[in-house]
Amino acid sequence: MSYLLLHAQVIYWRETLVLVGLDRSFDYQKMTNAADAIREGTLFVTINRDPVLPVSGGFLPSCGSLAAALETASGVSPEVVGKPEPMLLLEAMKMLGSEPEETVMVGDGQAIDILAGQRAGTHTLLVLSGSTSCEDLEQSSLKPDHVYLDLADVMKSLVYILSMESSPASSVSAAFYCSGQIL
Question: How many whole angstroms separate alpha carbon 107 and alpha carbon 49?
């Protein structure tokens, strides 16, 4: 038995939104179609401005890189609904019933993650296992509240803090050394 597959004929197609997220199959044709739609007035929204995605052995282009390509190709800047804008963090805190002063933004990118946390009014914790290096941190005026090498170091500190019965967690502060300086 054989089946005949029919394709519907599309007479008119009008995009209402170009939404940019992480797309590992992004190609020239997708960029051309999206840039054309944006130039014709379609709303252009990006999930975040993260330029790279840390992976084992290096980095991949991330959502911010794709959005930047479309911004250049279309001449239109996107609306940003995620980092570094605070909207996503504020909505998450609202859903969780959390206040900024009791919330920590943990991130591996100083320019995007830490900035988002600061804009949302949260505490900030940077792990140096992503796109930010010690040198980047030293040269920037944007400083996180806490810096750790990686999430394993964060977990070690949490275990230590929780194991301290005589001292409240708020009296413990972590310091991190970059090039011999305490940050």
Answer: 13
Cis-peptide into 84, omega within 30 deg: yes
Q: Is 6 domain-assigned?
A: no
Q: In what order do the strands lie in the sheet with 146-148?
A: 104-107, 123-127, 146-148
Shared domain for 101 and 173, answered yes or no, is yes
Query: Where among 80, 96, 120 does a domain terminate?
Result: 80
CA-closest candidate to residue 128, choices 159, 106, 102: 106
Q: What is the pLDDT of residues 7-27, one digit of tens each?
A: 445 445 566 899 999 888 999
Residues 176, 179: Cα–Cα separation, whole Å: 10
Each residue's pLDDT tens digit, 42-76: 999 999 999 998 888 899 999 999 999 999 999 99
> DSSP for 131-156?
S--HHHHHH-S---SEEESSHHHHHH
Range of the domain at 125: 87-182
